[in-house]
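WP5 quarterly update. Target: Germ cell-specific gene 1-like protein. Source organism: Oxylabes madagascariensis. Length: 209 aa.
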Amino acid sequence: KMPASIPEADRRHRASAAFSLSFLSLVFSVTAFSSSYWCEGTRKVAKPFCKGDTKGDLCIRFNSPDGNGSQGVQYIWETGDDKFVEKKFHAGIWYSCEEMINEEGEKCRSFISLTPASDRGVLWLSIVAELLYVILLLIGNILMSVEICYYSSVIDGLKINAFSAVVTVLAGLLGMVAHMMYTTVFQMTVNLGPEDWRPHTWDYGWSYG
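Structure tokens (predicted):
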């Protein structure tokens, strides 16, 4: 009886470890899907004019303290790249947010509304593929939990394990396709999107992987 119980215990330990890893993958996938940190970067914008006693490097200064209220000719000290400031932004499937100049917080817009109309179909396909990816991961988790609690037959447990492995592999392929489609849409939005959104530099964020 002892030799027969050891493989069964080992099998349950392996199943528990696989379930734990798959569950973590599901949690991270759901978090990433709802996140707006798929891509991060900066956007170059012109500085606003300084108002009142506003000081600092985030606004354009005049050559007199009361420059905004004077009707005379005013001279701006900033020249070239000094007239611009880089605002940080981050974007995901659902939202794109960028920091405010001289204010706290962020301004967020729907990424779908920023996407060129010709590419929105690809974006929706990416969203559907990402949803299927999460659903398949959930199914894989359910199957692994059934395997842990299934005691009657080792063969049946192996069948469930094999099926959950196939589902998990399919989920990974769908997730990869969804990410590739989103990358294509994002690059097209960078090139053809609204002028007041196009980033100056960007890279992939923590939730893209």
